[in-house]
Structures are given as structure tokens and as C-alpha cells.
Amino acid sequence: MFKNLILDKPLAFIDVETTGLQPNVDRIVELSILKIFPDGNYEYKSHRINPEIPIPDQATAIHGITDEDVVNERKFQEYASIINDFLDGCDIAGFNVLKFDIPFLEAEFRRAGIPFQNKDQKCVDVQILYHLLEPRDLKSAYLKYCGKEMELAHTAQGDATAAAEILDKQLEIHQNLPKNVAGLHALCRPELNNYVDPEGKFIWSNGEIVCNFGRNFGWTLKQLASQTPDYLQWMLSSDFSPDVKKLVYNALQGKFPKPKVK
Fold first, then answer.
1. Where is the Exonuclease domain (predicted)?
2. pTM attached to this predicted model
3. C-alpha torsion angle, residues 204, 209, 212, 213 (rounded to 10)
4. Which of 59, 162, 218, 224 has its CA 20 to 30 A from that of 66?
């Protein structure tokens, strides 16, 4: 399947279909993973999942999955260990995977009590690369690079497969792109240089850690700790990642990371 990307570890293309757009509220109803190995072999893993909440009509209109389709399926927590083992040692890829699929997986794994990513895991977002080259959606990207219409649009397996084929064609056509996951990861995540936590809830700005979301956007972490500690206490009791909670907990104890040295 891959002709142009050099892999030194497996690369897992992920796609999820969901009940909505909010990872902390909505749930995954279908998950597909295309795992490509450095030797060129590949393996699929696909699951329909009972989200434990109703699937809105507007979501069904997109992916075609109804409550009746998943009522007898297993819940995510029953698949969590299987999926975690399947992704162990892999880098991650997909189309819009950084803003959609990964946040949903992180939320589902968090509810299941299992960490999703490790710090050595790299990510290639095919949508970001495509938007760097020519802004379009997945169907247009597939038509442009693969020369044909998608047959299984808005199915997890179809979308994951399309993302893999698009990336391979991007590397073939655009010879200036890096031919390894680390180089593509750097193109997809330039903001990580300023992120304090993987989600970007806090960022570095002029040597200070600054809140990057919500009503206290722009406040430094030190200001939050000294002037609005109740807000940080609320964060500790809310659905934030372990990295964010550790940062907030330490701030309430008067402990702050040292400024990044460029």
C-alpha cells in the first residue's frame, strides 16, 4: 500500500464515527484502524460500538449508523485493552485525526481508565498536509490524489483507507515532503513547540505559562493560582487530561515548570 513513506515502526491510520462533535459529551459508534508495518504488510481492525447514549438523527445522516445498529454491540470499555494493545508501538495518522479522532479516543480511553498516547508517539494528520498544499475535504483530496471517487465515504474503514492512499500519493507527487513520520509530524504539529500540555490548554508565551482556552484565556498560570485558585480547583474536578491536572495541581502547590530554553 505504501510506496513513498519510510517507516521505522508501524503507522496506524485511525478513523472514528461518533454521536456528535464534542469528545467530552459525545461517544464513538464506529472505530477502524489500518495498521501498516515497515515491511509493507498491513492489518485492519474495525468495531461497531454501543455508545450508551442515543445517536442523533443528524449524526446518522452523516455516517448511516442508527441506535438499532449498535444496541447489541459491546461498549468501548470492553474494547479498550484490545485497541490499546493493537496501537502499542505505533505512530498515528489519519485525516483530521488531531482535532477529531484523537480527542475522541483520548476521552473514551480516559473514561475507561486507560492512557491513550505515549510521549514517543508521533502523529501525521493528512488533512493538515493537504491544507498546506491545497485546501479541500477528504473526498476532494481522494479525487485529486487518487484519481477516483471514494466508494465508502463516511465509513470508518473507508475514510481510514482513503487517508492512507492520499498520504502515499502526496509523498509521490510532492517530492519536497519529508519521507519519514518524524518529518511529517513536525509539519503537522508546529504549535507543539509552545504547548505545555499535549492538548494545548496551556502554552508558553514570553517565558510564562498562559491559559489558552475559556473565560481566563490569556491569564498566566501564576495569576490563576494566586487570584482565582477556585478555577484551578474546578479544573481538577472536571474532565481534563492527566497532564493538565498535574500541571494545575502543582501550580496550586506553588510549583511551576521552568521556562523553555530555545
1. 10-176
2. 0.66
3. 160
4. 162
